[in-house]
Amino acid sequence: MAAQMGGQPVYILQEGTQRFTGRDARRMNITAGKVVAEAVKSTLGPKGMDKMLVDSSGDILITNDGAAILKEVEVKHPAAKMMVEIAKTVETEVGDGTTSSVVLAGELLKKAEDLLDQDIHATVIARGYRMAEEEGVNILSKISKKVDPADEAILEKVALTALNSKASGITAREHLAKLAVQAVKKVAEKSDGTFNVDKANIKIQKVVGGSTRDSELVEGIVIDKEIAHSGMPRVVKNAKIAILNTELKVKKTETDAKFNITSPEQVKKFMDEEEETVKNMVKAIAATGANCVLCQKDIEVLAQYYLAKENILAVKSISEKDIKLISRATGGKIITNIKDISSKDLGKAGKVEGKKIGGKEFVFIEDCENPKALTVLLKGGSEHVVDESERSMDDAISVVKDVAEDGTVLPGGGAALMEVSMRLKDFSNTISGREQLAVLEFANALEKIPRTIAENAGLDPIDTIIALRASHEKGGLEEGIDLATGEPRNMYELGIVEPGKMVKQVIRSATEAAIMILRIDDVIAAKGSLGEEEEEKKESELPKGRKRPQMPSY
Predict the structure, then answer these.
(1) Does residue 551 form part of some domain?
(2) pLDDT at 23 over 50
């Protein structure tokens, strides 16, 4: 970039810097946003198609989860990265609705492009979109239905609606929905009449073996580890558990020390002292009445031997996350110093057992009394099935959590967004100025979600939307698309229910992304910022020979 001064160019930016301004910058960013939306659009809804992502090492990911697709695909364009960010935000905040938010953001950008072509300023469009967003969220609050967060029937419908939009390879969806509801209810904490659910207290453990129908809820924690020593018991009933995050071994001194050994007796004495230290550690644990040791760090071979002699089951090298979950599930205190251990620090479980499933070793800490953390054990016939089941279960748990905390639901099948669209069109007539056009286009953009659901189901999108629109004009605000017939049906009667909190977040996130992209009128890209240097750096962070799948360019 150079400016002229007295006939001499004055260089302001580094040589090789690319700059796009005004209309060119906006069109480039809008196009990037629309490409991301198009990439995930076909996965939306119960009849959505799956994506197969294959990297250079041959690893395969088959999913129709929008967040998983965008997380795995390497996106280069900065505006496209902003679209990926909104998917992450929705995933973090409400757990589901990621694809809907990206598709809606892409449609809002498309409508904004039409308005820009009519010489309506981007700031006016952004102001109109913001007005429409606020009114849309207010409308959702008015039409949402208050439910009892303890009502298992409605919670199961919410979970099943989320699961039905996932990959067709998942079976036993009703069973998984029940597991999701039970898991959330058991870890929910009630305060001041409302429920608080920490999703981190629900561990999802994948197991290749059996079928999805064999999945179960374990009232405790399942860890992907094996019992430390073959001489230890495989099963301990009425377990009293010492939970350690310190090593069971003789610690080395922090400073180097040198010993002059002149006879074999000195070597033996030195080794005997080390052995005595380890033996005393084990005795201190056994003296508390503990019959099970779960350690975050290493347990040396000698310590394993003495633990086995005391008939204590031990597991080593457990992750910090799992140790915290075990503590919450069993009520035990995490011990950092063996000298401080006492019987009141021990956790309790009905049973600790080592099991072999699908050729892998697992340790079950189960039958805990009033556990504050638990495990959903997901089973499946292949790695791909359990991976997709895990993503689906995570979404199901998230939407049940949303309803448990928020206590509101909305009809699914595009019903809620169609009703908001209809009411926003009436709202636009109350606005004077060019913002009215932006509000109207926002309303039209909301129809993209039910239209896409119909299209992905093989229905005629135009006929379906016309019928749905007519139904809502007659007051059928709870009517969405029945994908079996293509006709409008009451979604509550069909059991297709979504969390009110999720639908609101979809509108908010999509609007934020669209406005952010629209307000950019100058893109200054430094040399190499999108080129080979950056890509080589990113690829070098991956395992040798592996490359990320990339979004196609259009």
Answers:
(1) no
(2) yes
Read out DSSP for 146-202? Answer: E--TT-HHHHHHHHHHHHHTS-TT---HHHHHHHHHHHHHHH-EEETTEEE--GGGE
Cβ partners under 8 Å of residue 123, min gap 6:
519
Instruction: Mark whether 130 and 256 lie in a shared domain.
Output: no
d(CA 529, CA 537): 11
**Cα separation, 366 vs 375, whole angstroms:** 9
**Bridging pattern class, strands 479-481 and 408-411:** unpaired
- In order of 8, 81, 83, 434, 445, the CA distances from 109 in angstroms are 41, 15, 11, 17, 9
User: How many Cα atoms occupy the beta-carbon half-sphere of 243 within 13 Å?
Assistant: 25
Q: Is residue 91 part of a domain?
A: yes
Domain assignment of residue 227, given as a range: 221-370
Question: What pLDDT does 554 receive?
Answer: 38
Closest CA to 520 of 129, 124, 125, 122: 122
Rg of the chain (C-alpha set)? 29
b/e for 246-275, b at 16 or more Cβ within 10 A? Answer: bbbbeeeeeeeeeeeeeeeeeeeeeeeeee
Q: Which two tokens stand for residue 515?
A: 């406005």
Estimate to the nearest angstrom the gap between the alpha carbon of 493 and the chain centroid.
29
Q: What is the mean pLDDT of the chain?
A: 85
Give the pLDDT confidence of 7-18 residue by residue, as tens digits.
Answer: 566 556 555 566
Helix (H) or strand (E) segment spanning residue 469: helix 461-473
So what's the pLDDT on residue 553? 46
> CA dist 463 to 47, 175, 489, 546, Å?
18, 35, 15, 46
Per residue in 245-256, pLDDT (tens digit) is 988 887 665 555
476 Cβ contact list (under 8 Å, min separation 6): 488, 490
Same domain, 336 and 436: no
Question: What confidence tens digit (pLDDT) does each residue in 47-65 have?
Answer: 888 888 887 777 888 888 8
Residue with structure tokens 């904004």?
A: 112
Evaluate whether residue 93 is within a structural domain.
Answer: yes
Q: What positions carry a catalytic annotation? A: 65, 98-99, 395
Sign of the Cα torsion 460, 466, 467, 472 reads positive
Q: How many domains does the chain have?
A: 2
Quickly tell me which residue has 């001041």 as its tokens.
Answer: 192
The predicted-structure confidence for 238-282, as pLDDT tens digits, reads as follows 999 999 998 888 766 555 556 566 666 655 665 667 788 888 889
Over residues 343-392, the pLDDT tens digits come to 999 999 999 999 998 888 999 999 998 899 999 999 988 888 888 889 88
Nearest 5 degrees, angle CA 464-CA 465-CA 468?
85
Closest CA to 64 of 176, 144, 168: 168
d(CA 205, CA 357): 12
Alpha helices, DSSP H, located in 250-355:
264-287, 301-309, 320-330
Is residue 165 a part of any domain in this protein?
Answer: no
From CA 554, how far away is CA 550, in angstroms rounded? 12
